[in-house]
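Q: Structure tokens for this one, please.
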Amino acid sequence: MQVLRRLFSFLRPYRGTLLLTGVLLLLYTGLELLPPLFQRRIVDDVIAKKDLSQLGLYIAGLVVTYLLLQAANAGDLYLRHALGARVIFDLRVRIYAYLQRLSLSFFEQTSTGELMSRVTNDVEALEQFVTHGSSLTAVDLLRLLGTAGVLFWLDWRLALAALAPLPILTVALRLFNKRVRPVYRQVRARLGDINARLQDSLAGIRVVQAFAQEKAELDRFASESENYYRARVGAIRTWSTFFPAFHFVSALGTVLVLSFGARLSVSNEVSLGTLVAFLAYVTALYQPIRRLTEIDNVIQQAIAAGERIFELLDQQPEVQDDPNAIALERVRGEVRFEDVHFRYGQGDEVLHDVEFTIAPGETVALVGPSGAGKTSIANLLSRFYDPNHGRVLLDGRDLRQIRLDALRRNVAVVLQETFLFNTTVRENIRFGQPETGEEEVIAAARAAHAHEFIQELPQGYDTEIGERGVRLSGGQKQRLALARAILTDPRVLILDEATSSVDAEAEYHIQQALQEVLRGRSALVIAHRLSTIRNADKIIALEQGRIREVGDHRELLEKDGLYSQLYRRQLEMALEE
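A: Here is the predicted structure, written as tokens:
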């Protein structure tokens, strides 16, 4: 019931539309009760008495009733389905907005395909609930009560016969709900697995084809599809058995009325017109009951989808603004790590007692073997995570006391694995500043040494670069990412191995760009190629999450420690090549 209450809460902003829909449905329900009464009069007053004087009036009444019925039905159908489309739109946007606020750790633990399934398939499953489950349930209950009232008014004995199957149907419906809800939950989960497998396979299609694993991936996808198929068949088996049995039991009400009513009519205890009207009302009685069972099926699917959606909406961001956080307007760019310890989730600690300072305008490089903790330091400075102990400060203020939007306006990141969007060059460059004009975009591209190659593209800045920038080289993608960071004009720039995956020529262009970009900014550079950070103001050598050495390039070479070992090893490898 809690899930249903939360689902109904999404309808609160549309109370006016719901009220109008309710009025139309009540009008429709009331009009539905009239045709059998006209039929009763035609049988008793016209046919039985062989008097045609009133026939025209009764027929006119029937025509007007049916016309009003369909007018109310048309208005109701439009309003309900338009409302359903609007609610689903709002819910989908709300979920997407909420996903934007969740911390990086959540996305590292949840597959993209699974999230896509919840935003698309699970939300879509709620549309039937909005259009049929919410308003029609209440109205069908009113239809049921209204029709039952008319039945008792016509003849209480026949009414009891008509309602005799109801206790059996009520118990059966409860058993069905208990059985079908976990089945629908499993169907939603298996559909999420299919989306996760599909997204993973398509995102890695180059690797799949490079290793000739198309058949293996097909088998894995077929296996996930088979699981979904079996879950679907289980659900189909459940309701395809239940509904015919339910309809059979409800049809017994009509049989009982015919059996008992025929005796009463023959003995003149009820008129033939009353019996005809009664049979029409019995049909009208069991129509809402049948609809309620079908709507109940929709509701069970909506509950299963709603549980998955609310499971997502109940996730709390690990990193969020403190209630007293402020928006720093002027940032000098001083960064300080104080006694920082950090672990991912419940894993082992990856940073131990890290302390260092980046002065305003200073370039500090992090070096060390893989797994030393370099990227973890960058993640903490970007506040993708918070330290488990200690503080990270910007201009003397703990990052947890700075609003995230203000922090990320002043701290930009260029990652080793550059992510570009499937849109134009221009839109990628101004992603962080969507309102930026053409001159600023070109200036940022020039600063990143990207303007020249952009002009050579088929449509220049309007060139579509494909998913993840597939139509560009590694060096070109890195320079676009650098231009994107430059355009935000950050006071602190993080370069996470920005040149490790490009060739020598691309590295040269990027290094040229960096000389201009870093001027006057504080920078944290994670270096894979040590030759690229010889001019850094300060180099920090990390090993197993601890700072081993601090100094400039010449000082660390003279110490003959960790940095010197790493540097000589790279020189030897370069000579071997």
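A few notes: The CA atoms of residues 214 and 443 lie 44 Å apart. The first helix runs from residue 2 to 9.
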